[in-house]
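Deliverable D4.2, example record:
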Amino acid sequence: MHTDQGGGQRAYWAYIGSFTSGGGRGITVAAVDPETGALTPRTTFDPCVNPSCLTLARDTGVLYAVSDTEQGAARALRTGSDGSLSPLGPPVEVGASGPAYLSLAGSRLLTANYASGTVSSLSVGDDGSLSGPARSFAHRGSGPDADRQAGPHAHQVLTDPSGRWVLTVDLGTDSVRVCTLDQDTGELRGHGETLLRAGSGPRHLAFHPDGETVYVLHELEPQMTVCHWDAASGRLDPLSEVAIDTEGAPEGVRVYPSVVCVASDGRFVWAAVRGSDTLLTFSLTDGADKPRLTDGVACGGNWPRDLVADPAGRRLYVANEWSGDITWFDIDGPSGRLRHAGALSVPAAACVVFS
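Output generated by the structure prediction step:
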């Protein structure tokens, strides 16, 4: 929730998820200084094992967390004006293993279940509470990487800007699926599948504000695929591949790109790269479909798992899992380049969500 802080500034909260199995404290709640972007921890809340991904319903103020475990679940939490969290019902099983991502789609909560290779759908009540049973949509297929792609691994699920379609990103099958969602029953139905480079391991995608350009970041090969999205037909078409700079990685160390983030004004794309532990800036001055690498900086920690902009679009925040901290960077307006501005210790940090 936002609160007035004199001079028109509005303070807000950061909710930071972590891996409790790696020493994390669950969810850390931190106050965000509206002037400097600095984070000040206020409290921690342990709602479930491994709340590694969070999402916030802004209309109800309810925060949702996955429990990234073998018997995966999701949980709804009320947020208070003081940043506090309280349970809104018990955890609800998603009927799958290893939920790694969640997002809201109307009256449904969707989870991408990495270990099971499925996407689950739970019902969201008028008060924001969750209920089952979960409806499940199973991915099929595999990839050439025997260690990582023996079967499907759903890594992300989200709706397109029109709200008509659900896109699921699968690292194991080298593809992005397009589905329809029945809001009444929660059933997901396959509509189409876009195959990407074999062995590339797509992990995460983001839409440009134009609603037609999509950036798919790959984990197993250091590349980003630029795609065209047609909301009328629900079709995703690859346009080009952009290399992800691996400079900065120690000799013999493989890099694993993790997250792509698009500026709200559509002028820049940023990508986080694990292994080299860098943040890359791509300019879009040549067009939304023509990202051009312009800068790279150290992420300020080790193994950047999440990358998110603040509500004003003035800073980027990075969850560095292995070093156990959140780092933040001021964004240079004209160039999109990043300047390290601060850090907060958060063991096994996995994600950041702002109120």
